[in-house]
Structures are given as C-alpha cells and as structure tokens.
Amino acid sequence: MYTEKELIERCLENNPKAQEYLYKHYSCKMYGVCLRFARNTLEADDILQEGFIKVFSYLKDFRFEGSLEGWIRKIIINTAINYYNSKQNEWNEINLETFASNQAVAEDILDKISVGYLLQLIRELPEGYRLVFNLHVIEGYNHQEIAKMLNISENTSKSQLSRARSTLQQRLVQRKSE
Amino acid sequence: MNTRNKIDDLFKEAMAGYRVEPSIGLWRRIERRFFPPSRFSPSGLITSIFLLIVAGLMPWLLIPANKYEDKEPNIPAENARRGYLIKPVTLNKSFTDPQTMQQTAQVFSVEPVFYEASSLFTGDHDSEELYLASAIDPADDPAILPLINAINDQKTIRENKASEPVDKYTPEWIHRMTSRKTGLMNTTITGEDLPTHRENNIASTFSPYHERSYFRTTELSLGANFVPTVVFYDPNPYNQMLGGEAIVRLDLSGFRISSGIGYSRMEDIGSYRIDYKSYDSVGYFLDVVSFSVDPKNPDDIVLLLREEAIYDSVPHFTITEKNNSYSYIDIPLSFGYSFLNNGRISLSVNAGIKFSWLVHKNEPVVDFSVSNGELIGIERQVPARMSTNWRFTAGLDVGYLLTDRWSLHLEPVFEQYISPVYTKEAGYEPRKPIVTGVKAGIFFKL
For a FRET experiment, which of A17, A120, B38, B80 has its CA 20 to 30 Å from that of B149? Predict the structure, then answer.
C-alpha cells in the first residue's frame, strides 16, 4: 500500500511494482470513463492505453494541486477528445433549439433501467452528442469549457447537448412502449 | 424537476461510480510500449548467473591445458626429458600365426634416451629426424602400436575427424608428443646416458582413450542441457519457459545427430470473463407514507414522503486472470554439422524438430462470489492448450573441450511452432509462437 505521494515517487523512480499498482488502482474507473466516450471496447482499450502512457510520461509534472485521480481522469478525457479529433470531426453547427419537456419521461420508466443499458444508450449517441453529453452531464464541464476543449462554439455545445438529451429521451420512451 | 434534469440525474448517478476492469493484455501493452525492455526477467537472470558461473570457472578449468600450452613448444634445456625412443621406426620382427596367417606380434628396437623438444624443424641437421618417442616404456603403452602403424603407413594423424590434420613438424605436433606420454616428434638427442629406470612422474594428458580418438570416426556422447527460453505469442505478451534435457549425440566425421528426452515447464495467463448480476441502486422514488388535509388551507393535502431506493439486477462483467502452468515432455531430434574445430573450441550448426507432449497442467479454478447478486457464468477467454505440439528448431552450438571427455556447450536456439499451441476456437487466431533462448550444457564422450 502506498500513499499518493509515495506512489508517485516510486513510479518516478521507475519502480515496476508501483507503476503496475498505479495502473491497477485507477484503471477500472478510467476504463468506465473510456467506455462512455468510446463507441466500442476496442476504442476504449486504445484510449485507456494512450491515456496511461501519457499519465506515466507526464507524471513528473504532477504538482499535487489536486487529487491524482482527478489529474488522471482529465488526461483520459483529453485523450478521448484527441482520439476523436484525430479520427474525424464533423461538428454540425445547428441552431439552438429548445426541446420542450412536453415529451416528459414518466417516473416509472426510470425505475428499472440498468447501468449497462444506460451506457449502451450513451455509446449509441452520435459522436458529437456523446462527447458533449459526457463532458457536461457526467464530468460537469460548462459550455464555455467544452467549447474550448472541443474547439467549437458555445452554441454548438448547447445544441449538441440538447440533441443528445432529446435522443436519450426518445430512446427511453421507446423502451417504455416496448 | 423537469425532464432535462431527470435525464441528467439519471445518467449522472448511474455513471458516478461506474467501474469496469479493462482487458488483461492492456497493462502488458502499456508496459511494452512505455517502459524499457530491460525489466526483470527471471529466465534472463538465471541464464546470466549460469553464464557468469561458467565464465568464472573457466580459469580453473583451463589451468591443466594452459600448463602445457604456455610452456611448449619452447622447452628449456633443463626440462629435457628422459624417455624411450624407437629408432628407427621400423619393424624388426613380426610374428604371424601360421594357421591363420594373421600377425600376432611386432618387435621394435627401443632405446631409452634423453630428448628435448625443438620448437621448429629447420632441416639443417641430418640428426634431426622424425622419431617415435614415449615417456613410458613402450611395452606398457597401449598407444604405441597405432602410432607405429600410422607412421609406417604414412597416415596423417588427426585429433579427430573434424579437425584439420596437424603438420608433423610444427610446434603443435611437438606439443602433442611432449604433453602426452607417447607421440611422434622431431627430436634432437642430447645425451647418450641411458636411464635405467622408468620415470613415472611426467605429467601427461595422453591416455588410451585419446589415442583411440585419433583413429575413431564416430563418437558417442551423453549430455545434459539447461534450457531457459522465452515464447513470443505475437501480438500477445511473451511467456518464459524453463526446461532441461538429456541428450545422446553421435558424431560422424563432422556430422552429428542427437536426440533424447526433455522436460519443460511454462506459465501462461488464463483469462476468464465472469458475468454476474448485482442488485444495484439505479434511482429512487418518493413513497407517500401518509397524507393529511392542511388545516390552514383545507383545499391542500399535505403528503408525508419517504425516499425509497430502487434496485435492479444490473448485469456486470469482469475479467480475471489466473496463473496457469503447463509441463511438457519434449523429444528433440537434431542434425548438425561442425564447421569449425580447433581442438578446444568447436562451432556447429544444428537443425531439427521437437515433439512436445503436454503431461501436466495446473489451471486453478476461478473462484468468484457475489455478495448481493448472482453469478451468470464464467467464460474462458483463452482456448485450451493442445496436448501435443511440433516445433522446428535451429541453433548454433559453441563447444569448449574441458578434458579429453568433458565438454561445455552453449547454444543460442530459435524455435518455430509448426502446429498451433491452442485448440481451434471461433474468433481466436491460431497461435504458432516463436521461441528464443539458450541451451547450456555439459557433455561426456563415451
């Protein structure tokens, strides 16, 4: 067992056990993040691999200004964003639309939905929707930050989020009718 | 709470602590890409220690041989030896069985003399001739007869069939004589005083065995090898394999054939996917515990609510790894050719096949329990191993002769599986890994 500081120091000394410990300690959580950003497990594997290589490469730059987990999470998210930027980047500038809540989701629909199904819904979202939804709803970034991270306008971020919510809402209603 | 927030909260809560174990090979992929390859390797360490021990022992092992090689061929005058000289090397008498007409005995004239080795034959002195000499009485020396026959027949005597013939007038030739008990030499007689007793304290490596080896065309050897190797399952990670083998080797005029029996043991990661359901909280609802009419405002009803968590049997999966081990009996068959042999060191190329039979496997049972849920199933991710395998083998053997009979061998080896390691399964590529490593062993000539 290491403290966070000891763990980092050992890793920087190229101690293989510490490096493996760091990976094993954080990889499950980070893989959960990767699975949300990725379309499939192969992509999630790639993102996690690249992310942890960056973690070990830049570990010497960690300033202990926040938690190590938060720092690693940020690297993983940035890696996921870069991954999709490098593959394709089609951000459709669309007008901000307000989706009325008249297509309300009944309370009971939400009652018995598994985490696995929710993850599947996220992963089936179009790429832009998925990124913005993940960043805003799950990771808590605001639209200004997301716009900067994804190099898009704030309006695009907002519209992608609205469309993501709408798509998810439709899928949930669909599930109810099934 | 509007729909937007409900959806956000639903996903946010569900994903808050979401954890999934990544695939097993991922850490190894990261290790290989990021970390230097000089990470600890048990088989590498064992091999290094073995080689260091062998290297460390070399000076001691070489002392007997160097004792002669350092001194000769320039033997100082004070080291002149007394021995027996057969002069000339001709047959005085020969006895033959009258019935079978086969030769039964030979008689040579023998003169005990002082002699010393000269480094080079100059050819200036008539007295310098090629004589047969022995450090012991030729009557007691079983090596003498073949040498006499050889010189009479003008044969070229070799250390063995694989080596180059030794020129009779070179320092190497003189060394052969003086460092052993009997041989042919270029001599200069330095005294006529005939010793009357045998001198028994002359150190020598010459032995009846060595004499025989001059004329033998085949040699049978027994040996044992320690074989640490690494198996590469490209693109998967590698495994280390440790083994040993007992070998019988037959050398035939430079060509060799060897076979035997071996044992090898390797570890392999067994990967299993475990599917299970756990009863997780996926949300909550507000349960109406009681209600009453607001006394201040009779049109309103006051509800007393209680937050109730909703649980669902959520499917999960996790990947777990087990260290499995496999033991094989190996039967190698190898053919080789010795292309360099200077007496001490030999180099040979070998190629052949190896049959492996899986005789024992240790695959620990995957033990998984869910405290608040149920196990759906355990799926093996890596197929089972084949019970038999064939491999092509090749190597470069470096031999070092310690004594007349004992030799050390070091052989870098390369092996390619001809048949797959794993049983055929849908979605899994058949693997025919390659193996690299080193054989280190010791051999004894019979």
Answer: B80
Any A CB within 8 A of B312 CB: yes
Cα separation of the two ends of chain B: 93
Count CA atoms closer than 13 A to B174's CA, side-chain side.
20
Locate the chain B residue with the closest alpha carbon to A24: B27
Domain span including residue B53: 3-59+220-445
ipTM > 0.85, yes or no: no
Look at chain A and report how many structural domains it folds into.
Answer: 2
Check CB contact under 8 Å for B21 and A165: no
Q: How far apart are CA B115 and CA B132, in angstroms?
A: 11
Residues of chain A short of pLDDT 70, as ranges, are 1, 87-113, 176-178
B181-214: pLDDT as tens digits? 555 554 444 444 333 332 322 223 333 344 444 4
pTM above 0.90, yes or no: no
Looking at B206, B237, B271, the residue that finishes a domain is: B206
Pair (B169, B298) in one structural domain: no
Q: Per residue in B206-219, pLDDT tens? A: 333 444 444 445 77
For residue B211, being part of any structural domain is answered with no
The token pair at A90 is: 């089609």
Q: What is the CATH number of the domain that holds A72?
A: 1.10.1740.10
Residue A31 lies in a domain: yes
Whether residue A36 and residue B4 make contact (CB cut-off 8 A), yes or no, is no
Q: Do B15 and A19 touch (CB under 8 A)?
A: no
